[in-house]
Design brief:
Layout lengths: L2 H17 L6 H8 L3 H7 L3 H27 L3 H16 L8 H8 L6 H24 L4 H21 L3 H22 L1 H13 L1
Length: 203
């Protein structure tokens, strides 16, 4: 992708975060990027095409950062599942947090046939696949449902923080989500724990 296209994507992401998708006009993006209108149409065709490209870029960056952060924070797959909520806390307590770009996009483009909604769903599938992989490594017999449950809690934290970002309000929500996640992880891995204890207990 050309440097001009990258400039457009980066400028668009900044403005979508600041103002929302529909409220951000093409002229504002062009001014922020410092490029001509013909450059936009050459690389993306329409504003919706630019939104798709921007969300896809945000997903690639966000997943890389999230997965690296989770692996850095915890040494085992089980602990990494719970570290998802440390990452959530970091995200929502940033001074610049205005809400999840993917949740906001899905809200603005809710039609089932929307390519914008589709690229948001693609991001969610890839995050869940990562969590399911951790659950499988931890020994869960059925990792898919656990990944779904953790994603639901994670998204709940992001949505709550968007609605009421005050630290005093979001801190107990994060704590509750982390506690619920811990309970779900313990339940999903209960058989693993019993198997690990069995040889010792028998001795």
């Amino acid at each position: 992708m050309s440097s001009k296209a990258d400039q457009l994507i980066d400028a668009a992401l900044e403005l979508f975060d600041e103002r929302g998708y529909r409220a951000t006009g093409i002229d504002a993006i062009l001014a922020r990027a410092g490029v001509a209108k013909m450059t936009l149409y050459k690389h993306f065709g329409t504003k919706d095409d630019l939104i798709v490209a921007a969300i896809r870029r945000a997903g690639e960056r966000g997943r890389a950062e999230m997965f690296t952060d989770i692996e850095r924070r915890a040494p085992t797959p089980r602990a990494r599942l719970l570290a998802l909520f440390d990452v959530a806390e970091t995200l929502v307590t940033r001074g610049s947090f205005r809400g999840c770009l993917f949740i906001r996009a899905t809200g603005e483009f809710a039609d089932d046939d929307s390519p914008i909604k589709a690229v948001c769903e693609e991001h969610g599938v890839l995050v869940k696949r990562f969590l399911a992989g951790l659950a499988m490594q931890a020994g869960a017999d059925d990792p898919g449902p656990l990944a779904d449950q953790l994603m639901l809690l994670f998204r709940g934290v992001l949505t709550a923080a968007q609605s009421n970002p005050a630290p005093a309000s979001i801190a107990p929500i994060i704590a509750s989500a982390r506690a619920a996640a811990s309970t779900l992880i313990d339940a999903a891995l209960a058989d693993v724990d019993r198997d690990e204890r069995a040889p010792h207990d028998a001795a």
